[in-house]
Amino acid sequence: MTDFTLEDLADTIALRARSEDPSSYTAKLFRKGPAKCAQKLGEEAVEAAIAAVQGDRAGLVGEAADLLYHLLVVLEVSGVSLDEVKQELGRRTQQTGLEEKAARNPA
Ligand SMILES: N=c1c2ncn([C@@H]3O[C@H](COP(=O)(O)OP(=O)(O)OP(=O)(O)O)[C@@H](O)[C@H]3O)c2ncn1[C@@H]1O[C@H](COP(=O)(O)O)[C@@H](O)[C@H]1O
């Protein structure tokens, strides 16, 4: 078990994106702009998909971690908060719940 959260990582990314620390990968990537950040996200998504297709479980864990990190970078560079994404997921869950209820109790 870990006390890691995506919210903490998103906060760290927001801070590091604007840092001038030369050791920060996030800062370097952020300076390259939204198109480069999006390109990296696409590459990581493909690498994760390949690991899944190959049944490479350990590889998939690593690629999924890269993918989530790069997704959070793209959200940050695009001015979209993780909370907005969670709200959207929550809204869908609510909708699904209502649909299931309606299916169980047709009028
Ligand atoms: N979770 C990550 C994380 N996941 C992946 N990566 C980086 O993403 C890059 C992806 O690897 P690639 O080989 O595709 O890319 P590359 O050839 O190194 O770089 P490019 O020139 O292609 O961009 C690697 O350099 C990884 O270090 C990450 N870099 C940083 N974090 C976390 O982000 C936070 C801030 O990090 P810094 O900005 O480095 O301080 C810290 O908590 C880190 O743990």
UniProtKB/TrEMBL annotation:
SUPFAM superfamilies: all-alpha NTP pyrophosphatases
Enzyme class name: hydrolase
Transferase recorded as keyword: no
Catalytic activity: 1-(5-phospho-beta-D-ribosyl)-ATP + H2O = 1-(5-phospho-beta-D-ribosyl)-5'-AMP + diphosphate + H(+)
Annotated pathway: Amino-acid biosynthesis; L-histidine biosynthesis; L-histidine from 5-phospho-alpha-D-ribose 1-diphosphate: step 2/9
Residues annotated as transmembrane: none
InterPro entries per record: HisE, PRib-ATP_PPHydrolase-like
EC number: 3.6.1.31
Coiled coil: none
GO CC annotation, single: cytoplasm
Matches recorded under CDD domains: NTP-PPase_HisIE_like (cd11534)
Compartment(s) of residence: Cytoplasm
UniProt keyword Zinc-finger, yes or no: no
GO MF entries: ATP binding; phosphoribosyl-ATP diphosphatase activity
GO biological process, one term: L-histidine biosynthetic process
Annotated keywords: Amino-acid biosynthesis, ATP-binding, Cytoplasm, Histidine biosynthesis, Hydrolase, Nucleotide-binding
Superkingdom classification of source: Bacteria
Family the UniProt entry places it in: Belongs to the PRA-PH family.
Entry protein name: Phosphoribosyl-ATP pyrophosphatase
Organism, scientific name: Faunimonas pinastri
